[in-house]
Amino acid sequence: MAKSINQLCSEAYETAKSKGWHDEPRETGTLLALVHSEVSEALEADRKGNQEGFEVELADVCIRIFDICGSSNIDLEDAILTKMERNKGRSYKHGNKAY
Ligand SMILES: [Mg+2]
Fold it and tell me: Range of 48's domain?
């Protein structure tokens, strides 16, 4: 059976904690910068045509986010489902936004 998103959050947090990454508190800004660093690694892998590396770095992005949510008791699963439902109700290209 597949694990739920919140199970993955707990697991990512427990793994990071067991490796010492939560021995001292870190600022949210630092944690978000680390998410961004994984996004940058994904960009570099894609630019090099490294599909396997691209997939691994996207996984790292998720794992970093899972760790943040697991350590903060954020219900990421509910947040994602709620936002995805909200997105369904948005207008085409959100009213002609460029991005
Ligand atoms: Mg990485």
Answer: 26-77
